[in-house]
């Protein structure tokens, strides 16, 4: 028998996860289960797609996470009548919609205050998080002009595709799934709009995600010639711009320039941030070129971790609580 918390019993912050049985929702539940400062409202499994019951719980919550496909997220947002309810949406539905605040506290000065004040928070996409963490500081510092053409590749574990892709990979037996699989080859990936809006770049990057036969872990790489930067830019200046932008950030770690020590026999480990809420930022450089890289756990800073971090910021709590 599932116990459904009787909302209204306590004065703790009430939290509801719409999509509690999905990949992102389950992980948020795991994180919240460790905490004594929030009361988690649960929907009976057989009612989890019942609009009336979802609406009731969404409006009973102080904070509601939407861990749903885009259409169901839009539906959920339209159900809110309680002005106190703060929505934190993990889907793509609202990331560039006016009235929604982008849930990346490290984006720029003032973003935490915006998240604190907002009642509608759109969590970044997993690929977009890594891309924006790399590009925004360089555009802000004037090292990259907004009209610079940029390209990016993202290597991601299959959990990024949610329950269906996880089932497909874990069923086994399909040799096609044993190799890395590039996708997004129409060059219209759903994260491109937020990548542009949040970096200030005038054109979308040429973006190729690649899904591989590992559960989680993600790394975005952005190759650039130094000639594409503002005159006089050196790898050291790029590195310094990251160090300035992320000074004091507990969830962004700027690694030493051309950090060979981080490589395993010369190979980059895309899984090294797994089970953390961290993004690691790297600048690999030669005399004429740089390769910018950012890695994260796609289910951590790329999804559930970021969502919980935003809740903490919104509530004025220690930002790393539970993470
Ligand atoms: N996985 C990842 O790395 C990331 C995912 N996201 C985004 O977060 C959102 C959730 O993703 P993820 O957890 O991976 O997806 P999943 O497919 O694993 O889970 C989605 C959940 O939503 C439920 N659901 C679908 N429609 C409805 C509805 N109408 N009402 C209530 N529940 C519904 C599904 O039910 P059922 O169990 O019946 O299928 C499922 O449990 C998506 O928008 C995704 O794109 C964002 C960042 C990263
Ligand atoms: C492997 C895989 O399919 N990954 C997903 C990204 C998951 C994600 O971040 O998507 P949201 O925009 O919903 O947050 C994709 O590229 O579409």
Automatic annotation (TrEMBL):
**Semialdehyde dehydrogenase NAD-binding domain ranges (all copies):** 14-115
Source domain of life is: Bacteria
Q: In which pathway does it act?
A: Amino-acid biosynthesis; L-arginine biosynthesis; N(2)-acetyl-L-ornithine from L-glutamate: step 3/4
CDD domains reported in the protein's UniProt record = AGPR_2_C, AGPR_2_N
- Grouped into one coarse class, the protein's main location is cytoplasm
The protein's matches in Pfam families, at most eight in alphabetical order, are given as: Semialdhyde_dh, Semialdhyde_dhC_1
Protein keywords: Amino-acid biosynthesis, Arginine biosynthesis, Cytoplasm, NADP, Oxidoreductase
Instruction: Quickly give the catalysed reaction.
Output: N-acetyl-L-glutamate 5-semialdehyde + phosphate + NADP(+) = N-acetyl-L-glutamyl 5-phosphate + NADPH + H(+)
GO MF annotation, one = N-acetyl-gamma-glutamyl-phosphate reductase activity
- What EC class does the entry list? oxidoreductase
Q: Which Gene3D superfamilies match?
A: Dihydrodipicolinate Reductase, domain 2, NAD(P)-binding Rossmann-like Domain
Q: Which residues form the active site?
A: 126
Its subcellular locations are: Cytoplasm
The record's EC number reads 1.2.1.38
What NCBIfam families does UniProt report for this protein, alphabetically?
argC_other
Similarity comment: family membership: Belongs to the NAGSA dehydrogenase family. Type 2 subfamily.
Biological role: Catalyzes the NADPH-dependent reduction of N-acetyl-5-glutamyl phosphate to yield N-acetyl-L-glutamate 5-semialdehyde.
Q: What is this protein called?
A: N-acetyl-gamma-glutamyl-phosphate reductase
Top-down, what is the taxonomic lineage of the species of origin? Answer: Bacteria, Pseudomonadati, Pseudomonadota, Betaproteobacteria, Burkholderiales
**What gene name is given for the protein in this entry?**
argC
């Amino acid at each position: 028998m599932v116990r459904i918390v009787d909302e209204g019993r306590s004065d703790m912050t009430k939290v509801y996860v719409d999509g509690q049985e999905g990949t992102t929702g389950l992980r948020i539940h795991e994180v919240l289960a460790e905490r004594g400062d929030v009361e988690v409202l649960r929907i009976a499994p057989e009612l989890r797609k019942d609009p009336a019951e979802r609406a009731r719980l969404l409006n009973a919550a102080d904070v509601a996470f939407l861990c749903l496909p885009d259409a169901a997220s839009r539906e959920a947002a339209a159900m809110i009548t309680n002005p106190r309810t703060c929505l934190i949406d993990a889907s793509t539905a609202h990331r560039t919609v006016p009235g929604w605040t982008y849930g990346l506290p490290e984006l720029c000065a003032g973003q935490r205050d915006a998240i604190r004040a907002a009642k509608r928070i759109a969590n970044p996409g997993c690929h977009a998080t890594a891309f924006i963490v790399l590009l925004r500081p360089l555009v802000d510092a004037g090292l990259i002009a907004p009209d610079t053409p940029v390209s990016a590749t993202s290597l991601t574990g299959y959990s990024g595709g949610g329950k269906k892709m996880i089932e497909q990979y874990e069923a086994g037996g399909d040799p096609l799934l044993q190799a890395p699989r590039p996708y997004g080859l129409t060059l219209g990936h759903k994260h491109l709009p937020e990548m542009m809006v949040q970096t200030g770049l005038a054109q979308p990057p040429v973006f190729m995600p690649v899904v591989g036969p590992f559960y989680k872990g993600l790394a975005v790489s952005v190759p650039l010639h130094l000639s594409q930067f503002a005159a006089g830019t050196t790898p050291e200046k790029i590195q310094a711009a990251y160090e300035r932008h992320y000074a004091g950030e507990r969830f962004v770690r700027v690694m030493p320039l051309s950090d060979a020590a981080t490589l395993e026999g010369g190979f980059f480990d895309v899984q090294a941030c797994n089970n953390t809420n961290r993004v690691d930022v790297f600048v690999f450089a030669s005399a004429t070129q740089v390769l910018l890289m950012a890695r994260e756990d796609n289910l951590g800073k790329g999804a559930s971790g970021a969502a919980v971090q935003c809740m903490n910021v919104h509530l004025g709590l220690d930002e790393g609580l539970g993470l």
